[in-house]
Amino acid sequence: MAGAAPQGASAGSDIYRGNGPRLLLPVWLWVGIFLVAPVLIMAVYSVLTKEFRGGVIWDFTLAAYDQFFLDRGLFGDEPPRIEWTYIGIFWRSIWQAGLATVLCLLIGFPTAWFIATRPARVRSVWLFLITIPYWVNLLIRTVSMKFLIRDTGPLNEFLLWAGIIDTPLALVNTNFAVQLGLFYSYLPFMVLPIYAAVERYDFSLSEAAADLYADSWTTLRLIILPVVKPGIVAGCILVFVPSLGAFLAPELLGGAKTFMIGSLIEEQFKGAAGNWPFGAAASMILLSIVMAVLLLHARAQTKGDRT
Amino acid sequence: MTDLRHFTGFRPLTVLCLFILYAPLVIVAVYSFNESTSITRWGGFSLKWYVDVFTGPEAPKFRDAAINSFTIAIGAATCATLIATAAAVAMTRAGRFRGKLASLALINLPLMVPEIVTAVASLVFFITIGLTTGLLTIFLAHVVFCIPFAYLPISARMQSVPDVYEQAAMDLYATPWEAFRLILLPLMAPGILSGFLLAFIISLDDFLITNFVKGAGVETLPTAIFGSVKQGIKPNIMAISTLLLGVSVVCVTLSWLIGRAGQKR
Amino acid sequence: MLDVAQAVEIDSVVKRYGTVTALHGVSMAIAEGEFFTLLGPSGCGKTTLLRCIAGFEQVSGGAIRLHGEDIAPLPPHKRMVNTVFQNYALFPHMTVLDNVTFGLLRRGWGTRDAEARGREVLRLVQLSEFAQRRPGQLSGGQQQRVALARALAPRPKVLLLDEPLSALDLKLRQAVRSELKSIQRETGIAFVFVTHDQEEALTMSDRIAVMSAGHVQQVGPPREIYEAPQTRFVADFIGETNLIDVTVTQVSGAVARLQLPGGAAMDCPAAPGARPGPGHLSVRPERLSLCAAGQGDLAAVMQDHVYLGTDTQLLMRLADGARLVVRQQAGSGTVPDPGAALGLRIEAGAARLLAD
Ligand SMILES: Nc1ncnc2c1ncn2[C@@H]1O[C@H](COP(=O)(O)OP(=O)(O)OP(=O)(O)O)[C@@H](O)[C@H]1O
Ligand SMILES: [Mg+2]
């Protein structure tokens, strides 16, 4: 044991030292060529001129960004005012994604906690039950949700039958439905990282707190939440980021009033109404928001490490 | 003596959470066995929609889509697993070198870029370089986002295998390649298999990116289902969904069993 | 030194980890067929030195020669050196026989020859019946012997053993000691054995190197290490000893004349490097005996005693306040009362002046 300690403690082994760059070459090439380069090209597309019926003309212009942020009237000759349409869509998307994140946290934390505190044998069964939906096709899950809450779907049938309502609830095409869809889509992403953090939580900390007269909710607030915070933050990011750019939930469960970023971008690349530079510009703006969130997180994390 | 792990209300919330996650799936699975053509009234048990999936008028479309989906998923998962394994060796066993942190960021980049952005970027990229969209482009794009999912279980497993075994092998005259092939690879096989399965499911799952890069005429199961759902949810879609659900459950179960077997050793 | 072939020569080896220096110019030579032990407290660099010989660490300075050949540029798999790892590192996915033949196959042996040799070595460690088992199905002692067999099979020029017995319980450890020693004699391979258990070192070794903080303190046969320690560290680390402050008046060759606390003068053997001036005298507790006050070499006051079964430890204080321990065999005299003034006699030839 004594001899194993210093070796185990040193971060990472180096028995294949010198081979690192060579082994990473495939990742660099693949992700570099098929993700980084495409994003850069997309950035270029966002400053090109649109071709009607899709595609671009290689003339540089900031028209796409101009269209996103500024309203110059129907013929483009009025003094520019701020264009609220797209900012509004972005804002609503951020709000929806944020709400979904909060809801997922409110249900996901107790769930993760409950599972992580089960006896070891039962725990793996609970965990298994939570993981299955994570592996199930997102499209299928969203379609199933739509099926469930349709005007004539099983949910309404049941409520009518039980006498709770007299007329079917019009759930589909509402913000509520989209919200439910987002929540339902990304809930497993919240549970798993929190579970991992709670599993590592040292319960003698709770004992110490209880010993020092903290009741269980005080312990939760002052000890447990701060200690498992990295898991919570990771879960929130894993829910927020995909919710923000979500396409399936708003597309299938929502309607024109619940339009989100994903649909806005997708529309630019479909059919005659398409405007590729505008779609690329909206993608760039979405990407910038997400990167800003991730950078903030990374900054907070390194700061946390230093203290 | 109160249980410090116990919080009132957490158990009902967990049950609620599972209920929300499972209710739609279970209901769709149940209704896929519905005799009635009306998708809301229960008309007795029947397998006719499954028969319809395999022999009905839409059967060729879904069969082609399924073949495409599975071919791409197997290819992309294999490719991503190879790349991720090499990367995991570099990250966990090659000591320190320049660009290590940047590499980790790069491996995880596909998780950080929103799917819709990746979809748009892939489309404009393939068009710019003049690659006609189709199966090949779907494969190329799928490998990208499969890499981080394959990397996760593989590197976790590799970290949990101490390197003394490979040291012992090298001490017994194994070259680094032999130490990797004869010792590390078999010891971390469960991690590799889990990584493969996860990547496989993720590829099978993808709708958005596929929809952008697939081009006209090529369909995978999700795009075919999506196209069909736009005109309303038909019972045969529920049957296909239930079948895909089964594939997912089999994969998770496999991965779970593999993980448990790995732990016991 | 006798003119025997050297299996390993370690020549001023320095090993640094960043700012930490684990080995400060360590030199030693290990003879062909020798059971050589590295002994020292935790963190003194024993494992580091072994890993340098095996090739898992690159030395920062100095040279390591195997049968005269500098092996610094060779990776581990090209060194004819094998290691018995502390926790054995048996390949869990292979059978015992596959573990043992692993090195042979890497050296290019044919499958059949390798298997024959593997069975031969398993016979040597009395594990023939276990050839087809997995390591997980063996007891700790059996695993230890498989690890030994695996390392011996390719007939390395040197075998390195890093605390191979530390994972075994006390009873088993004692049994394995003699077995290990006899296997070593039988095979004639030089063993470099690491331990921080001095009893293990003293009972098994042909020679011992005592290390401390990355330095070699003394190299010699067990008896010499125990009876003729050269430095305070060695005297203190090996067994129990009393270090008495003395004034050295004269050193001539290996004999010194010195003045004990209290003024008595005596002649005693001196370690090489001892110098006139203040110094330290090492006397083992069992080689001090009690006598009446005013007699003997030292004057002491009884403080306390500790009963240890086979003998009793008497704790004393000299006039200058220094503590002293005397070991009295059970039944050889009465324990003095606390506070009693006594004389202490140093057995002839028992005291030794250290080089500090
Ligand atoms: N990889 C490393 N990085 C930095 N320092 C190290 C490393 N390995 C060992 N050291 C340091 O080198 C010194 C010698 O370590 P080594 O493992 O050789 O001690 P040891 O004599 O084998 O001790 P033990 O009896 O506890 O096994 C220690 O101070 C240790 O902290
Ligand atoms: Mg050690």
TrEMBL record, chain A:
Record-annotated membrane-spanning stretches: 27-48, 94-116, 122-140, 177-198, 219-241, 276-296
Membrane topology value: Multi-pass membrane protein
SUPFAM superfamilies to which the protein is assigned, alphabetical: MetI-like
PROSITE patterns assigned to the protein according to its UniProt record, in alphabetical order: ABC_TM1
Domain ABC transmembrane type-1: 90-297
InterPro entries reported in the protein's UniProt record: MetI-like, MetI-like_sf
Subcellular location(s) of the protein: Cell membrane
Name of the protein in question: Spermidine/putrescine transport system permease protein
Source species of the chain: Salipiger marinus
Lineage: Bacteria, Pseudomonadati, Pseudomonadota, Alphaproteobacteria, Rhodobacterales
From TrEMBL, chain B:
Keyword Transmembrane helix: yes
Alphabetical UniProt keywords: Cell inner membrane, Cell membrane, Membrane, Transmembrane, Transmembrane helix, Transport
Annotated InterPro entries: Bact_Polyamine_Transport (IPR051789), MetI-like (IPR000515), MetI-like_sf (IPR035906)
GO cellular component, one term: plasma membrane
Residue ranges of domain ABC transmembrane type-1 in the record: 66-255
GO annotation, biological process: transmembrane transport
Superkingdom of this protein's organism: Bacteria
Membrane topology qualifier: Multi-pass membrane protein
Protein purpose: Required for the activity of the bacterial periplasmic transport system of putrescine and spermidine.
Family as reported in the entry's similarity comment: Belongs to the binding-protein-dependent transport system permease family. CysTW subfamily.
Listed name of the protein: Spermidine/putrescine transport system permease protein PotC
Source species: Salipiger marinus
UniProtKB/TrEMBL annotation, chain C:
Domain ABC transporter: 8-238
Annotated SUPFAM superfamilies: MOP-like, P-loop containing nucleoside triphosphate hydrolases
GO annotation, biological process: putrescine transport
Keywords, in A-Z order: ATP-binding, Nucleotide-binding, Transport
GO cellular component entries: ATP-binding cassette (ABC) transporter complex
Coiled-coil zones: none
Gene Ontology molecular-function annotations: ATP binding; ATP hydrolysis activity; transmembrane transporter activity
Keyword Nucleotide-binding among UniProt keywords: yes
Protein name per its UniProtKB record: Spermidine/putrescine transport system ATP-binding protein
Species: Salipiger marinus
The organism's taxonomic lineage, starting at the top: Bacteria, Pseudomonadati, Pseudomonadota, Alphaproteobacteria, Rhodobacterales
